[in-house]
Structure formats: C-alpha cells, structure tokens
Design brief:
heterotrimer, A mainly alpha (38), B alpha+beta (377), C mainly alpha (536), A: 38 residues, mainly alpha, 1 helix, 92% helix, 0% strand, C: 536 residues, 16 helices, globular, transmembrane helix (chain A), transmembrane (chain A), CytC_ox_assmbl_put (chain A)
Chain lengths: 38, 377, 536
C-alpha cells in the first residue's frame, strides 16, 4: 500500500465509523422522544 | 400418514381435537368465522400461485440440468443479457404481486374494523393464565381466571396424555353465536398473545396498553387456542378455550355466572377457621403458585425460592409475606397478585404455606385472616 | 494448518517474499494481520459455533420428540431455544461469511490484504470473547437468557444475570461486525486493482459491499436496543416499561429495524457466492450482471422499509399494516430476478455437477421454497394465523439453513482447493450434499404443516395431535447434524494433504483474479497490484 492509499483508507474508515456512531446516537434520541410521547 | 407410534405414555390412539388441531393436520383450519374463512382462501390462492410459478421455474431448470450438460456434449452458449426478458420477468411478477395484494387488502381492512360490536370482553394475559372480564351484555361484570386444567401427571409422563392435552381449561370464555365479539386485550406482566385458529384471531396482549380484535362465530362449539408470544417458563401451558353457545344458552350461562359470583363474594371481615383457610389455600396454591414454587414447596434452586423452611418470608411475621404476594418483587418473576386474587384467597394461600410441608408449628403468625390482607392493600 | 503456511515457499512466488518472513507458532495466529490467516480463523471459529448451536438444537429437538416433559424443564428448554438462535446467527453464520470475505475479497480484487490489517485482527479476536460470554451464561445463577434470540421486553427484563452476559456478548460481537464492515467497505472502494471498475467486480464482492453498508447501518441500532434493555434492567430507565411511561412495543420497533436488514445481511453474501459458482460450472458468464447488482441494491434498500412485518399482531393501525405488507411483498421481485438470472445462466450452458454446483443448485431450489413461504407470511391476514407458529420456524430455516448455510458449504468446496492446494474428496462431497439436502427437508418441511395447524413456536410441550410431525423433524435433525461431521472430515482430509494437488485454476469455467495465483495461495499475493483487463 502506498502512503497515499493508506491516507485515503484512513479517511474513508473514519467517515464510516462516524456514520455508525451517528446511527447509535440517533437510535437513543428517537427512543427517548418516542418513549416520552408514547 | 404413517403413525410413528413409539410406545409412549399416551397409550390410546390420538383423535382429532374438537375445536383444535387435527391429527397430522396439513393445512389451516377452514374456521368458523368469516375472517378465518377469508384467510383460508387467501392461503389457497397464495399456495396455488406460488406452486405454479415454482413448477414453471424449476421445470425449466430441470430441463436445463438434463439437456445442457457437458457430458451430453452440449456446448455452452455465450449470451449474457437480454433486456426484453429481464424486463418481462420484473414486470410480470410485479403484476402478480399486485393481484395478490388486492384481496389481501380487503381482509386486512375487515380484520381491523372492531366497530359496532355486540359484545365486548376484556382479556388479560398473566404469567401463566388468561383472565376474562365481560364489559357489557347479559354477563356484564362477570370476571374469572382461566387456567390450564391438564393434570401435572400427564405432563410428567405418569398418566396417559388426553385428547385435549394442553388445550383444556377450568373455565372457558363463553360467547354467543352470530354476534360480533370485540376482544380488548392487555397483560399484567409481559407480552402474551391470544390466538384461536378456528376463529382466525391472534392479537398480542401488551402490558400497560389496550389492543383489540374481533370475531363473529357462526357455529356453536368449543374452539381452542394457545398463547403465541414467549412469556416465560409456562408459555406452553396457558391455553385458550372459547365456548360459543346459542343466544339463549349464553343468556342462561350469564345468569348463572352472576348468581354464582354473588354467592361466592366473600365478606372480607369474616373470620375463618384455620382448616377452612388451609383447604382453600391449597386450591389457590395448586393453580397459582405451584408452577414456580413447586408442589413440594422446594422451588427451583437458583431460580425460584423454596417456601418450605423459608425464614425470610414464610416463617416470619405475616407482613412481609402479605406484602410479597400483594405487590410481588419487581425485577423478578414474582408477580403482584393484588389484582388476581381476593383478600380471602391471599389469606388462605399464605396460611396454607405456613402450615404445609415442614412449616407447621414453626414461625409466627400461622394463620392469616382476609382482614389482615385488606389492611395492607 | 500445514498446507496453508508457506514454510515451503513455491519457487514461482515473488522473490521479495524473503523480505516478509512468515511468522510461526502461536504468535502467527494471535497477532495475525494476514487476510488469509484471519479468514481461516473466522471459518474455524464459525464451524465450532455451528457445532455448539447445533448441539443446542438437537437437545431441544430431543425434548420435542414426544409430548410431555421428559428431559428438560421448560425454563431450560427456553434457554436452549434462545441460545441456539443467538449462537447460530452471531457465532456461526455471520462470522462464516466474514471469513469468506477476508479470504476472497483481496484475492478477487487484486489487493495485497485488507485495508486495516491490524483492526482485522481485533475484529476476529473479539469473537471468542463474545462466544465465551454466551456459553458461560448457561452456568450463572438462573441460567442463560431464555427470552428468545429476539429478547423482547418486558420478558427480557425478568431474566437473571445470564441476560446481562448475552447483552455484553451482543455488544462485543456487534463491535466486531462493525469494524469488519468498515474494513470491507474501504478495501473494496479503495483497493481494487487498476482497471477493475465497480461494475467489473466479481458479484461476491458486490454482495459484500452492500452487506457491509447494511451492517454499518443496523448493528449500532441493535447495540442501542440491548443497551436500553440493560438500563431498564439495572439503571432505572423505563424505555420499555409501561408503568414508567415507556412502551414494550418500542423495543420491537428498534429490534426489528435492526432485525430485518440483519436477515438480508445473512443472505446477500450467499447470493454472491452462488453467482460465482453457477457460471463456473455452467461454463457460461453470469446472466444479467448489471441486473444482479441492481437487485442486490434494491433488496438492501427495501430491507429498511419492512421491519414491522414481524409485528403484524402487535396492533398497529390499518395503514401501517398495509404499508408493511406491500413493502414486504415487493422484495420478492428483485429476489425473483436473481433466481431467474441464475436459471438463465444455467440455460444452454455446458454444466457439470461437482459438489459446489450441487450446493448452489440445491440452494436455489430450497431457498426459493423459503422465499415463497416468506411471501405467504407477508400477506398480513395469513400472518395473523401463522405468526409465532412453526410455519415461521420452517420459513426462516429454509432461507437461513438451506439458504445461507448451503451457500457457505458450496463456497467451501469451491474455494477449498485455493486455500489448501488439494482437491477435496469429490465422492464424499456428494455424499455430504445429498445427506444434508435430504435430512434438511425431512427436518423442516413437516414444520409447515405444524404451523398451519396452529403449533406455536418456543414451546417445550405440545398437544398429542402434533406428535408425528415432531418425531419426523427430530429424526431429520439428528441425521442433519451428524452429516455435518462428514464435512469436517472432508475439509480436514484435504487440508492435511490427502487429495490430488490443485492447479491454480482447478475449475474449467472459473474466471477471476483468485484463480490466477497458485493453489495453495501464497502467504502474500498481489504485492504489486495486477492490471485488470477482463471485460464484462
């Protein structure tokens, strides 16, 4: 792997990890809203 | 159907269960309600269409397997796509799906329409039995619990299994024929589900919420179902029996229920003798407590506490045990029985435990009166 | 393992191999960063879990041989049922597919390894930790989780410490899946050989690309769901407790929002495998490559929109019932397209029927049956009658066992020569296939009848009228379980070197970069990326 490739890989990897964390957070937020209203 | 009858405790030849499953039944019940019959037809429609498609596709594949083989000398063709073919076999299935969805939609809408009911019954799921309460009609105010009535000996293999094994109860739900019965469901502890295949009904019973469904039985008879949502250890042991009677028989049954309830209504201030309480308490114990605490009072080590020799609650001042039976232990399997059992029943079962097995003569408060329970509610 | 190491470096491997010496002993495996080694470990782990999950199934089928309780009290039976599901899904099927991804994706796209080799190691080694937690949960007070693999509240709130073990195991296994998914996406997007555009990629890679996105999107949802169970159990929250203002059905929505894409996560890579095997043995290119890609994407997108078809009896409004019914029925269309395309690939090919092809064709046949029962279940009124009955159990075992597991078996035979350099015993392979195929149908076909007749699922005991079909299912299950020992024998035999040496491409019709490297594949492959020129 070239250093350039490594850098691109890391960037894509972090974006995807952020996506996963965002979904985790969103689920909790939705559950709290729903739970309070429902 | 070849009966693979290993010699079992069952002994006698099994027959179709009236109102329940037939021996080696292959298909849905035709049912005794219009909805059940619609579902039966929908299923046939799906089965026929899917079978025809299946035969078509795998007929082609089988032909190919037989003819397009290397060992028959067939040379491979080179084609890789065909837009027309691909569009066809996308659009045609789509149209078939639409065709299936139209009658299904009609039935969905009909099943959800619980309006204009002739009779409403509230059904509550408990661990592990059903409770029925009539909200209107000739039986308004009648309420009772419906427990599995199959003897434990049959379950343990000590007695031959009966023909209504696991689908028989001490008190069935009774409804009149030809009337729209609205069933309002809830649960006291965990999610249960009320299912009666002959009626075409299944509805989850959710604690803290009310859900409803309906049926209109067009034939008198006895119809059987079971709990259809995992609810703990006795999930398989809380069946449903619905008895559909003619309108006159239903009215007669309702009248009898109401007078029986009046006669049995207990004066909570009455003082009972020890023997009366123990006898009644033994009955309550055997339907309500034995599932976990076991008939010998030993419980299941590590899971359900023993009552025999229990110094924490049973061989201790009565307040702790009354509180436990009334309010349960939240976060454990010990439910609150304040709404399921009357003061008299609670007093009786507590008295029974304090005098049964090895407990007699040990511990304070060997006799608990209904008024003691009422005071702590 | 001897035929997978490069103790004997094949003479035609690149001379720069000497620069990276192959590690030996336990360090090679504990600190593995090589995609082939990690793939091997995933596959061995998943097979062990298959045996553990299978043993649980045999235990519960033994109890179900006759009505009445003979061996296991219902509470223990419920533990077996629950753990059978959790172990098979999270311990056997998912890791097996990841094992194949690790082995084959770099080889198929011409990459030297996965994008994140060290994270790959961590992803694997989390799995035994999760598996130990799950297994250990049987031995804590109260036993293992007994609320079903679906862990519905409020029942799951009543469970003892075994439930907490299961929750932590799910967290750990989920973290492993998420990291694996990130690895796979980045590898596929960034490390394809020059000349390999996405639409020239083998379909197995496409299926994993889409699956990895699904994993990324829904494993966090599961993590949230079980965390909320944990806090409801121990930290005073009321997400699912009506008395505190919560809603048990909320759990079901969150769980199935994960749960439905999860089942597609378990089948899409299988579709990819079958799409590699059938063209090889038909000696004909896959029919409609582009449509197959679109179908995979359509199935993945639709899978997010149909979760409540698992909840038709919870009492949702009419419009919701109809929406989820229509959405679910629609998924059959791209799925049907795939079946038609595989058939068209076979049509006018020049087929031979070695074991991988037997499993691939067997997959199409039996998975389609499962697909049809899924369509029947999609029709909400019918679902009302058969939800939570053995009809559902039959359906999902047809798609998960005859689907996913058959594809895994077929792909094992297909790629085993590449992994270990030997041909497996073809005669024994065919025995494995036929025994598996026949015993599978004996076990699960009668369950359709049981379900239609009203036999509920997760029951330790049943009415006498159901006995015959249960006995047939139990006998079939034993035969099925024992047949898998034959697979272990076949694989071990080949790996230990007892089989004809395999050429770089042992399959006449196979195409793909993996068949351009020697068999067994050298420890390091595609150290310099190849120029990819094949057209599609």
């Amino acid at each position: 792997m070239t250093p350039e490739q490594r850098r691109r890989n890391r960037r894509t990897g972090w974006v995807l990890a952020l996506f996963a964390v965002a979904i985790l957070v969103w689920t909790f937020v939705r559950a709290n809203l729903y739970g309070v209203v429902g | 159907m070849i009966a693979l009858s290993w010699a079992t405790a069952a002994g006698a030849q099994v027959q179709d269960m009236p109102g329940g499953p037939g021996v080696n039944q292959l298909n849905l019940h035709t049912g005794v309600t219009p909805i059940a019959r619609e579902i039966y037809s929908l299923h046939w429609m799906m089965l026929i269409i899917c079978t025809l498609i299946f035969i078509g596709v795998f007929g082609v594949m089988l032909y190919s397997i037989i003819r397009h083989r290397k060992d028959k000398g067939h040379k491979a063709a080179k084609f890789e796509e065909h837009l027309g073919l691909e569009l066809t076999w996308t659009v045609i299935p789509f149209l078939i799906i639409v065709g299936m969805a139209i009658p299904a939609t009609r039935t969905v809408v009909a099943m959800k329409d619980t309006s204009s009911a002739d009779l409403t019954v509230k059904v509550t799921g408990y661990q592990w039995k059903w409770g029925y309460e009539y909200l209107d009609g000739p039986a308004a105010g009648v309420q009772f619990l419906s427990n599995l009535s199959t003897p434990q000996d049959q379950i343990d293999g000590k007695a031959p299994i009966g023909n209504t094994y696991l689908m028989e109860v001490d008190q069935p739900m009774v409804v009149p024929v030809g009337q729209k019965v609205r069933v309002v469901l809830t649960a006291a502890d965990v999610i249960h589900a009320w299912m009666v295949p002959e009626l075409g009904v299944k509805q989850d019973a959710i604690p803290g919420f009310l859900r409803d469904t309906w049926f209109r039985a067009d034939k008198p008879g006895i119809y059987r179902g079971q709990c259809a949502e995992l609810c703990g250890k006795n999930h398989a042991y809380m069946p449903i029996v619905v008895e559909v009677k003619s309108q006159e028989d239903y009215a007669a049954w309702a009248a009898k229920q109401k007078s029986a309830m009046a006669a049995a209504s207990e004066d909570p201030n009455k003082t009972w003798t020890k023997d009366e309480l123990i006898a009644k308490g033994k009955q309550v114990f055997s339907t309500t407590c034995v599932a976990c605490h076991q008939a010998n009072g030993q419980g299941i080590p590590g899971t359900f506490p023993a009552l025999n020799g229990s110094t924490k609650f049973v061989l201790a001042p009565m307040k702790g045990q009354i509180d436990t039976v009334l309010n349960g232990h939240p976060g454990t399997a010990m439910a609150a029985f304040r709404d399921q059992l009357s003061d008299t029943q609670i007093a009786a079962v507590i008295t029974y435990t304090r005098n049964a097995w090895d407990n007699a003569g040990k511990g304070p408060d060997p006799v608990v009166q209904p008024s003691d329970v009422k005071a702590l509610r | 393992m001897s035929s997978v190491t490069v103790d004997h470096i094949p003479p035609h491997a690149g001379h720069d191999e000497h620069a990276h010496h192959v590690p030996h002993g336990w360090r090679r495996w504990v600190f593995a960063t090589n995609h082939k080694d990690i793939g091997t470990m995933y596959l061995i782990f998943s097979f062990c879990m298959l045996l553990e999950g299978g043993t649980l199934a045999l235990l519960l089928r033994t109890e179900l041989f006759e009505p009445g309780i003979q061996f296991f009290q219902p509470e223990l039976f419920n533990q077996f049922t629950t753990m059978h599901g959790l172990i098979m899904i999270f311990g056997a099927i998912m890791p097996a597919f990841v094992g194949f991804a690790n082995w084959m994706i770099p080889l198929q796209i011409g990459a030297s390894d996965m994008a994140f080799a060290r994270m790959n190691n961590f992803s694997f080694w989390l799995l035994p930790v999760g598996a130990i937690l799950l297994t250990a949960s049987f031995f804590v007070p109260g036993g293992a989780n007994a609320s079903g693999w679906t862990m519905y509240a409020p029942l799951s709130l009543q469970m003892g410490p075994g439930m907490d073990f299961a929750i932590f195991a799910v967290h750990i296994l989920g973290a492993s899946s998420i990291m694996g998914a990130i690895n796979i996406i980045v590898t596929i997007l960034n490390m394809r050989a020059p000349g390999m555009t996405l639409m020239k990629m083998p379909l197995f890679c496409w299926s994993w690309l889409v699956t990895a996105y699904l994993l990324l999107a829904v494993m966090p949802v599961l993590a949230a769901a079980v965390t909320m169970l944990l806090t409801d159990r121990h930290f005073g929250t009321h997400f699912f407790n009506a008395a505190g203002g919560g809603d048990p059905v909320l759990y079901q929505h969150v769980f199935w929002f994960f749960g439905h894409p999860e089942v597609y996560i378990m089948i899409l890579p299988a579709f990819g495998m079958v799409s590699q095997i059938v063209p090889t043995f038909a000696r004909k290119r896959l029919f409609g490559y582009a449509s197959m890609v679109y179908a995979i994407c359509a199935i993945a997108i639709l899978s997010f929109l149909v979760w409540a078809h698992h909840m038709f009896t919870t009492g949702m409004p009419v419009t919701a019932q109809l929406f989820f019914m229509y959405g679910t029925m629609l998924i059959s269309i791209p799925t049907g397209v795939k079946v038609f395309n595989w058939t068209a690939t076979m049509w006018r090919g020049a087929m031979t029927f070695e074991t991988p092809m037997l499993f691939a064709i067997g997959f199409i046949f039996v998975f389609t049956i499962g697909g049809f029962t899924g369509l029947v279940l999609a029709v909400a009124p019918i679902d009302i009658q058969v939800q939570d009955t053995y009809y559902v159990v039959a359906h999902f075992h047809y798609v998960l066992v005859a689907g996913s597991l058959f594809a895994l078996f077929g792909a094992t035979y297909y790629w085993l020569p590449k992994w270990c350099g030997r041909m497996y015993d073809e005669r024994l392979g065919k025995w494995h296939f036929w025994m598996t195929m026949i015993s599978f149908n004996i076990t699960f076909f009668p369950m359709h009848f049981l379900g239609l007749a009203g036999m509920p699922r997760r029951y330790a005991d049943y009415a006498a009228q159901f006995t015959d079909f249960h006995q047939i299912a139990t006998i079939g299950a034993y035969w099925f379980g024992l047949s898998q020992l034959l697979l272990a024998y076949i694989v071990i035999k080949a790996v230990r070197g007892h089989g004809a040496p395999a050429a770089a491409n042992p399959w006449e019709g196979a195409e793909g970069l993996e068949w351009t490297v020697p068999s067994p594949a050298p420890y390091h492959t595609f150290v310099t990326p190849p120029q990819y020129e094949a057209s599609h």
